[in-house]
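Appendix B. Chain record.
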Amino acid sequence: MVDATSGESGKGMRDRKMHREVLESDRYPEIAFHPDRFEGVLIIATQHFTSQVPYAKWGTKTPGTFFLRVSESVDIDVITVGTIGRR
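Structure tokens predicted for this chain:
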């Protein structure tokens, strides 16, 4: 699980809008990742991936201005700590 409220872009106003209008982190405070495989000993894992952000499908407009263009892809870095157990 990832704490959705921990997402930061480095810009306070953009972060507040992201949490309020895109992630809705007050309503959905946790993000779950379910990997389909892993290799090696799982203690600490770092992940980097690029995700497409479908603003229009989410019912929001692309958060940009006349001077600031916003990409529809987002680089995401996640550091996780875990153990392996049986369900």
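Further analysis of this model is presented in Appendix C.
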